[in-house]
Backbone:
């Protein structure tokens, strides 16, 4: 999805939003694809108010990156042991995203809120599925997180990235704004793949509207 020019990514991001997504009201309403819906007690409400968060299993790396691009805090562990993933989701109060029916079933028994992601559809449809199920909105690129590490992005000028080995001289010349990840220090800018990313976002929006 992203061209890798020595670690930098030609993609426009704006890192202005920090409030997190709206609380999805329907979380109190059981959904056929929610294997478990926890009661909306104060603790759950507080947790949701601070921003909905996800953990994707190792097979859903692409989905995880797109959730980040749309501003939703999503981690994907590099381990595959079910128990560890479930423990992580439960302890960090993250919604588990998986296509593994067995894992989803075990998650239900451990009271880990889980979304079973459809197979045989493209990643845009997977994203649309998650957003639709949780009544989340697309507000791209206002809330975008670093697709590489889930970190917060900061809008910076040329001077902050001048001399960065990941930013070619021509790119520095042509752009006045960059987006710097506060965590992994990766630099992003508007580039040749911007059109394709915008198109994918439009596809997700259209699926949500249908
Ligand atoms: Zn990062």
Residues:
């Amino acid at each position: 999805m992203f061209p890798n020019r020595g670690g930098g990514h030609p993609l426009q991001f704006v890192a202005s939003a920090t409030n997190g997504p709206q609380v999805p009201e329907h979380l109190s309403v059981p959904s056929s694809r929610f294997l478990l819906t926890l009661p909306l007690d104060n603790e759950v409400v507080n947790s949701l108010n601070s921003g909905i968060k996800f953990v994707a299993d190792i097979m859903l790396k692409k989905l995880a990156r797109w959730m980040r691009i749309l501003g939703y805090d999503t981690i994907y562990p590099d381990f595959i042991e079910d128990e560890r993933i479930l423990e992580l989701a439960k302890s960090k109060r993250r919604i588990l995203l998986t296509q593994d029916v067995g894992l989803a079933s075990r998650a239900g028994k451990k009271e880990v809120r889980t979304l079973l992601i459809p197979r045989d559809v493209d990643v845009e449809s997977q994203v649309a599925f998650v957003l639709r199920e949780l009544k989340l909105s697309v507000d791209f690129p206002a809330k975008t997180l670093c697709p590489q590490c889930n970190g917060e992005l900061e809008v910076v000028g040329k001077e902050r990235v001048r001399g960065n080995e990941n930013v070619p001289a021509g790119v520095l010349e042509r752009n006045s704004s960059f987006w710097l990840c506060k965590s992994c220090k990766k630099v992003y800018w508007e580039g040749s793949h911007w059109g394709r990313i915008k198109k994918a976002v439009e596809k997700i929006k259209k699926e949500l509207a249908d």
User: Anything to note?
Assistant: The radius of gyration is 18 Å. Confidence is low (pLDDT under 50) at residues 1-41. Residues 146, 148-149, 151, 181, 183-184, 186 surround zinc ion (CB under 6 Å). Residues 194-209 form the longest helix (16 residues).
